[in-house]
Amino acid sequence: MKVTTQEKKQFYQIIKDELIYPVYQPIVSLVNGEIVGYEALSRIQLDQCEFNTEKMFHISEALDQVWELEAICRKRSLQCAGQKPLGAKLFLNVDPNVIHDEKFQSGTTVRYLEQYNMKPSDIIFEITERSSIEDCPTFCKTIQHYKKQKFEIAIDDFGNGYAGLARVCAFSPDYLKIDMEVVRNIDSDRVKQSLVESFALFCESEQIKLIAEGIETKEELQKLVEIGVEYGQGYYLQKPDRNMYDLKPEQKLEIRNLHLKHERYKFQPSFFGVVETICHEGQVTFTDQSALEVYERFTKNKDLTEICVIDRKKNVVGYLTKTMVMELFGGRFGFELHAKRNVEEIMRQKFLFVDVHTPIETVSKMALARPVEDIYDAVIITVQGKYRGVVTVKDLLEAAISIQVARATEASPLTGLPGNAAIQEKIEMLLTNELPYSVIYIDMDNFKAYNDAYGFNNGDLMIKSLAKVLENHCGENRFVGHIGGDDFVVITHDWNTEKLYRDICHDFDMTIQSLYSKMDWNRGFIISKDRNGFENQFPITTLSVAAVTNEKHNYESVDAFSKEIAKLKKEAKKVVGNSYISGMK
Known about the structure:
CATH class of the largest domain: Alpha Beta
Low-confidence stretches: 264-271
CATH superfamily of the largest domain: EAL domain
Number of helices: 23
Mean pLDDT: 85
Strand content: 15-25%
Shape: elongated
CATH architecture of the largest domain: Alpha-Beta Barrel
Distance between the termini: 69 Å
Largest sheet: 8 strands, mixed, barrel
Strand order of the largest sheet: 1-2-3-4-5-6-7-8
C-alpha cells in the first residue's frame, strides 16, 4: 500500500499525541434484550484527517506500526470502560499478526486491566482479520496462552471467506460473529437463512456463542430471532457511542415478545415432558463473593455438588463444582493461594444451559454429548434467559427410566405405542401450553367385517400395519398413540394436515393389499356378516380421519375438545372410502 507524505505525517501525529477515542456498541441477548457486552471501536480525533479509521489500520501495516496503534486503541478503550455494567464483557479487536508480538505478550493488557480495575474474564479478544495470518501454529499457541489466563476469544466476520471452519477448529473460540454481509437482508434471502441456520446448529453443538452483527432493520432482527441466533449487534439495536447505554425498555420488550412468539412455534411433542418438571432450585452465588465462602459451603454440605454464579439480574455468568473447588483449595499451598480470591476469579465460564420448556430427552442428548470431563456436570435451567435452577445427570437418568417403565406398562401390547393415559396427558399439555397443534383421530372403516371374515390374527396384522405406516410418516417431531382396537391418534405442530392424511392413506392402501385374497382385492369388497348376522358386501378397509386444531379456536377443557373430535369423527364415518374432516373446514 502506498502512503502519501501527508498521510504519513498525520498518522505519526496520531501515534505521538494518542489522538484516538473509543466508542462502544452493545451486544444484546436476542432472548431477553439484556446487554451481554460492548464492542470497543476506535475513532480518530485529529481535525481534517485525510483518512478514516479503516484506512488508518492499513497505514499502520504499511509503516510497521500495527502494535503501536493497537496499544493506543486498547489503552483508550480500557481507560473509558469504567462505566461498564458488572458482568458485561468488553470486546477488544485484535489483529491476529500482533497477538504474538513480544510487546503484546509482555503483559501490557494485564497491566492496563489492573490499572482500570478490570480482570481478564471481563475481556474478549475479537480476532479481526485485516490480513492473513502469517504463522498459524505460533498464533494458536498464543491463543491458548491467553485462554488459560481467562481471556475469551471471538472470531469476527464468520462466513465471509476469511474466518472459515478451519479457523474455528484451530482457535476453539468462545464466540463467533456472523459477518454483516450475511446478515444484510437475511429476512428475504433463503440462502442466507439456511447458512445462518447451519451456523446456529453448529454453535449449539460446540457450545459456542453466536453473534449476528450488522442488524439494521426490524425484519432482519425478526428473522434472526426466528432462526435462533443467540446474540445480536447493529444500528437497529443501538449505534456506537462514547457512553455505554442500556437498551430502551421498549426495545427489550420487542426482543422478548419476538422470542416468545417464535419459541411457541418450536413445538416438539415430548413423551417424557419438559425439563422444568424435574428442575430444582439449586444454590447460587455472586461474582464478588469470597471463594473461601464457597469452599466452606461445599465442605459443610456433603450433598452439595455445584453452585451457579449469577449477576444481580439473575443472568448465569459462571459455574462451580465441588470437585474443582476442592482441587483448588487442596494441596500444600492451595488454601493460601485461593482463600483471598473471589468467585469470579475461580469460576468456570463454559457450562450447558437450556430453557425450561426443552424436552427432557433433548436435554439428555445434549448432556451426554459433552466432553468426558464435563459429562457429570449439572445442566443449568433458565426461563427467558434468567436462572431457574439445575438438573443433574442423575435426575435425567431417573426421569428417563421411570417414564420408560411407565410407558412400557401402559403401552398397547399389540403395537407398542403409547395408550390412553399418555394420549390424554399429551392433549392436556397442549390445551394448557397454548402451543400450535393438530390432533388427528384415525379410525378404520369396515374393520370389524374384515376381522370376522379373515380372523383375529389377520385383524391384528392390519392394526399393526396402520401403526407402522403412522410411525413411518410421523417421525420424532410427531406423537402417535393407540387408543385401542382400530383407533389411533397423531399429534403434530403442523396445522396443514391434509398432505399427511393423503400420504398415510396411500401407504396404508399399498400395505394392506397383501392382507386380502386376490379375488377380494380385485373386486373391491369382501363378504362378511353384518351386525344383524346376515351376510353382506363390505368395501376394502379405508380410513376415516378427523382433525382438530387451535389455528382459529382454543379449547378450554379436554371435555370440550373431546366433544368436537367426536362430532368430526361421526361426520367422517358417513363418507364412503378414505375421508378427511377438519374442524377448520
